[in-house]
Design goal:
heterodimer; A: alpha+beta; seven-stranded antiparallel β-sheet; 2 helices; 15 strands; 17% helix; 36% strand; B: mainly alpha; 9 helices
């Protein structure tokens, strides 16, 4: 049998096998998993810290017994790290070919700068010093090489980042920019990438405004409702858990969108749900750092939907709901 | 589906990604891991990764290749984790009367042969012959050189040809541990 015959049979059989599969994944399941993923992040923190402490102890003993302590580090502030860890591959022009320079924000202090380095396939661990819990930071990372890079920041992630091939015609592109909320100290950034991938990143402080910024009304779409927490400044919380409030309702529309900005305690959850239904059709987590966000119910609302805000007591927030598609059938008073 | 929509992280993007790429990702994942639940999980995780990270892709044409890359890497990871599990139901029933059964048996023989390929080689076969990626695209997806992929595909074809000629060997115990 010739190769072409085997290839033809392969294509037919694989197509039949692949295309006949029942497809059961739904958008609702995706949204549920997205929410669960974000919730689970906070739960992983404790076990991660415990594992790190144990591993640091072991690594420390091994380092002492082998006389490794005192070796120069390549990264600006690499920490003792969980096993397995990299011993920091040296940067070299060949290793960083195509790696873009990261533009830093001159108005924000740089908390950590990791100079270009070459992964050896193990996990590199860095501690970000000088941060406090509930502080916002920005991570800007660029990588180049064959494969994907796993980035774990605090208890978030790991996120998978594709890296640009070294031989690509285009430059490596803009660095990944990720907002993060410091949820533990020491605050740890872990990078795991296949051997040969070069990367660099910086962690910058994010200055949060004192007063809740105004929302810029979006051009398209009709105004539906506006709601606020009643204060434009965050106030000390009572220490209780987050509180959920129904702040308005969206009529049946093709696409509804909600602008939201908040300031204060960690993050805010915005749900677009059906009245009487415990399951929200859209849930979105918004960091309360004064940055405006837009949450859109792309699946549309066949019936009226409630907009719910869940936030810690004392959080200042502002919400404007508009339609983004067909005009609403009715606008609630 | 636009990279711009991903960049803006609008929730409807999830549904758009699912309808545009969900079936293909599911098939690729399933053909590598041969487990429906694992394949569904890989689809979900891949699309969530795209939702959270895909906005960094500048070239919209690269989105499909990037999604296949993430899904394949996850499939390879899943397969590695479960490679020690002996799946008795993974061995197809080859008995069956008549012409229909003969056609079915031939198909099952080929699938069994694919299952016996090393996991990286199987992923290359799936990306080349199901997803219709070029050799260069398969190489990029798997992080290998095109020459390595060409050699893997040729070896896979040779092994499948031999398997189709004599589907009984090697022993079933090897199939069950593949």
């Amino acid at each position: 049998m010739h190769d072409t015959q085997v290839e033809d049979r392969l294509r037919r059989v694989l197509r039949t096998e692949g295309d006949d599969l029942p497809f059961t994944v739904t958008t609702a399941e995706l949204e549920r998993r997205l929410l669960a993923r974000r919730r689970a992040a906070s739960g992983r923190r404790v076990s991660l810290v415990a594992a790190a402490i144990a591993a640091v102890a072991v690594a420390g003993m091994v380092a002492v017994s082998n006389g490794w302590i005192g070796m120069p580090a390549v990264a600006t502030q690499p920490s003792p790290s969980p096993s397995p860890t990299s011993t920091a591959g040296p940067s070299s022009p060949a290793a960083v070919k195509g790696l873009v320079a990261i533009d830093r924000d001159p108005s924000e202090p740089t908390l950590l700068e990791v100079t270009p380095r070459l992964s050896d396939g193990t996990t590199d661990v860095f501690d970000v010093d000088g941060v406090e819990v509930e502080q916002f930071v920005t991570i800007k990372l660029a990588c180049v090489g064959h494969g994907v890079l796993d980035l774990t920041v605090g208890s978030q992630g790991p996120d998978v980042m594709p890296c640009q091939s070294e031989g690509a015609a285009e430059p490596a592109g803009d660095p990944s920019i990720q907002e993060s909320l410091v949820d533990s100290t020491p605050y740890r950034v872990m990078v795991r990438a296949p051997a040969g991938i070069a990367y660099t990143f910086v962690v910058e402080h994010v200055t949060v405004p004192d007063v809740l910024p105004g929302l810029d009304r979006m051009d398209p779409g009709d105004f539906v409702f506006e709601a606020t927490s009643g204060s434009d400044r965050p106030e000390p919380g009572t220490g209780g858990g987050p509180v959920t409030r129904v702040v308005g309702s969206m009529p049946a529309v093709l696409v509804g969108q909600v602008q939201v900005v908040c300031l204060g305690h960690g993050s805010l959850r915005l749900d677009v749900g059906r009245p009487g239904s415990p399951t929200a059709s859209v849930s979105s987590i918004v960091y309360c750092n004064g940055e405006q966000r837009i949450v859109s119910d792309g699946t549309g609302n066949p019936g009226p939907a409630e907009i719910l805000v869940t936030a810690a007591d004392g959080t200042a927030w502002h919400v404007i709901a508009t339609t983004a598609g067909d005009p609403p059938a009715t606008v609630p008073p | 589906m636009t990279v711009e929509a991903l960049r803006r992280r609008r929730p409807e993007t999830l549904g758009d990604l699912l309808s545009a790429y969900g079936r293909e990702l599911q098939a690729v994942a399933y053909l590598i891991v041969r487990d429906n639940a694992d394949a569904d999980d890989i689809v979900i995780e891949t699309l969530l990764t795209a939702f959270e990270r895909g906005g960094e892709i500048r070239d919209e044409r690269a989105l499909r290749a990037w999604l296949l890359r993430v899904a394949t890497n996850r499939a390879l990871g899943t397969r590695r984790r479960s490679s020690r599990v002996i799946r008795l139901d993974a061995t197809p029933d080859r008995a069956g009367p008549g012409d229909v059964a003969s056609e079915s048996t031939s198909r099952l023989d080929l699938l069994e042969g694919i299952d016996r390929l090393p996991i990286q080689m199987r992923a290359a076969v799936v990306l080349r012959y199901y997803a219709d990626l070029s050799v260069e695209e398969v190489a990029t997806t798997l992080g290998k050189s095109p020459n390595t992929i060409k050699a893997q595909l040729q070896t896979a074809l040779d092994r499948l040809r031999i398997h189709l000629a004599d589907p009984i060997s090697p022993s079933l115990s090897e199939v069950r541990h593949a």
